[in-house]
């Protein structure tokens, strides 16, 4: 791989206008073969078409953005990218923390037109890879169904599922990827495949937790769903200074909880809180929360609970406007065993006022799936820890924000180990492949070599090797 190709694959520098791009006639031929639009630098609509969720990456310059409207469009783009040695990246919701779906000098395949949501009479849902969690939840709710998934309404279903998929009812029903029955995917050879337990089983295994963008471009999913039920939501706010006591009490409280209770903590300088959901009677929830309060030893300053439907519960955890783009960076660790010194961990989490820590409980149905049964390896973790820091002008540079997060990520101690959640990708994560994939890394790399032997879908933290010296026109 020469230096120019490396820079394109790595996204290290803007490459608009770089020598070696396909000539204009080739782009025109591609445009004529597509059903959806193709946006190139200088075209009307290009600045908007290339935008993802995060504003920090607005200076990146894809060679083109293709608004794929049919599976055949995806096939055309993959073939074109292979012939011209261009990196290609799929974009569903555009929430990639490092901005990998806005690829400098490559082709972005915008899947937003693959947004169909079909709920079948048996409760299965057929969902396009560009659908967002908000419309999915609303459509399913109208049919009395729920897909266990996350809370951010603008997140795309593809990235969430392919990385695992944490959510409000996963202790009861499992991860989003555990509900997956089949996926339609275009692989590097341009073939449209349906991966399931009986067709392409190794690929199906990898798509359940092996991360987005590694094996091809998924265009649609078939999921099992569960019947909708009333949900009790709750929130307890504890006084500042109780972060260590809350962390210690919460980790003792968690293992004895019924699967029906999911909880999360908000730990930061000046904040200590617990919130969550319960699929059961409010009287039982009150008993469980009273137990936590006794363990903390400090009464909460505020206490709220109410019974509602799943859609309203989901929306109560996401108060952002759907049209607002944001600027922040993130990283993660998985809590693999109880913290030996909660005070020391709380000090690390709260020393920088710019860092927010969001903790999601695990266990329950998540843990009853073996670490090697799907590609998601962290089945026995007690919880996931997500660390966030603003990166907008006035909040410090992106580099400064990442330094703050690194101090937290790497300062937590052996209880957290070399771990991380692939849906919270961190471009500076030490030993990232081991952290995200653990025991499943060798098998995942083998699947990537099988389905993408020439590295068509390579990116800085991808499992495929970059473009090889094989003639890429032979598709």
Automatic annotation (TrEMBL):
SUPFAM superfamilies registered for this protein in UniProt: FAD-binding/transporter-associated domain-like
Cofactor: FAD
Keyword Oxidoreductase included in the entry's annotation: yes
Keywords noted in UniProt: FAD, Flavoprotein, Oxidoreductase
Keyword Flavoprotein among record annotations: yes
Residue ranges of domain FAD-binding PCMH-type in the record: 58-228
One of the record's GO molecular function terms: FAD binding
Family, as annotated: Belongs to the oxygen-dependent FAD-linked oxidoreductase family.
Protein name: FAD-binding oxidoreductase
Lineage: Bacteria, Bacillati, Actinomycetota, Actinomycetes, Pseudonocardiales
